Amino acid sequence: IKGRILNYLKKQNKDLKYKNTQGDTSFAAAGKLIINKTLLVMSHPSGEVVYNFQAEVKNGKYRFWLTDFEFIPYQRDRYGNFVASTTVGIPLENNPGKLNAGEWKEYKAQTAKYAKDLGTKFKLYMSSKTPIVLPTPEKKVVKKEW
User: Fold this and answer.
1) Is 80 helix (H, G, I), strand (E, B) or coil?
2) What pLDDT is recorded for position 42?
3) Measured between alpha carbons, how far is 146 from 138 in angstroms, rounded to an integer?
4) What pLDDT shows up at residue 135?
5) Strands, E, within 59-146: which ranges?
């Protein structure tokens, strides 16, 4: 199971970035998702949500959870590209007030949908029967002759 979790985290290099292993049973990764804002025909990113992914293995079982959801707003730079306006995220559980309440609900809804999809994909990957082959390091033989 450990190899399967590690393989999943290393394969998901676009969504999840593998950080480290705590001991031999706990795995950590950081992820982000882009929140899109749709106006009639056009769609553009309004921000990103960064989060932490934790997985633990014990007695042939596993569990995982997503924590620390933070929203980072986007703005246009001088070249017209959407970039993060700040590096400090706003915790998603905070209430933004009346001004952005509608947008904030949409951010939460998109994040919840993404988290549910990620959980489903992870469970499906973990329950698949295909064996995960971990690469074995090649043994080098040193000889005096060429």
Assistant:
1) coil
2) 74
3) 19
4) 66
5) 61-76, 82-84, 90-91
